[in-house]
Sequence to fold (313 residues):
Amino acid sequence: MTSHAQYIPGPASGAQMRKEEGENWTLILVRELRHSPEKVWRALTDPVHLREWAPFDADESLGTVGNRVKLTTVGAPRPHVTETIVTRADAPQTLEYKWGSNDMRWELEPVGGGTRLTLWTSINRRFIAMGAAGWHICFDVLDHLLGGEPIGRRVGPESMKFPGFQRLHAEYATLFGVDVPKW
Amino acid sequence: MKIKLTSVYVDDQDKALRFYTEVLGFAKKADFSQGPYRWLTVASTEEPEGTQLQLALNNNPVAKTYQQAMFQQNQPAAMFFTDDVKGDYEQIKARGAEFTMSPTEVTGSTIAMLKDTCGNLIQLTQLARW
Fold:
């Protein structure tokens, strides 16, 4: 088992940004995982799996169209719960729902023995690089989890504190040509 | 233990940030987001390391009811202290804020009340000098 301390995220990659009308832009993330679409699908939809890697907890499966699911954002100081309805669930290919007001669309394509996973998500343009860095780390955690070597979920304030996050945030900001917010 | 932060509920964080910075004159201090959650705080430019005010999104029905009831009963959601309530009143009014009470002397202080456009009343307080 890889310890938390040994994990260092790789460089920013596989992300694109699409400017839209208004505050919310589209973040497109592509990642190749060494696991089958069926396995990845389960990790994207099953509450027990989501709890191990995703930035939110779900109280119901996201794998069935019409399911009403409460998503709880991890790491918010007060419980931040949003309810969503699964609008598309074509296992193991396409999954659509909303996280708050953000559209989430997942696509899984078989590649060799693995899966090319693509996420389209609408996100406030100011946080597009922050979101890319957060998802980058989530996907690393997911890949390790599916490989049977979990490194532990890294979301919310905990993920931002470790040095790799700020580096990734800056790299994605450079990639997208946006400013890194200063605090 | 230290008191470093207090919060007000707002119905729109972008609108709140504009009002609290451009109209009231505070400065943005922290702005983090994860999915639909956004941690947003401002601080006084006179005291940048002082107490922060969190502009928390009011997406909780209980908090919404509380906020509306406080507003209807003329209860301020937050109180800011100043050395010149009349000067601030003129400036903030000139920047477009709507006051529900112009500077008024009460026991021990002079106060004014304004709408923050995000569902709250804000009281400005200048303590009397004895």
Observations:
- The two ends of chain A are 36 Å apart (CA to CA).
- Residues 59 and 121 of chain A are 21 Å apart (CA to CA).
- Chain A touches chain B at residues 23, 55-56, 71, 73-78, 80, 82, 99-102, 124, 126-127, 130-131, 134, 155-157, 160, 181, 183 (CB under 8 Å).
- The domain at 4-176 of chain A is CATH 3.30.530.20 (Alpha-D-Glucose-1,6-Bisphosphate; Chain A, domain 4).
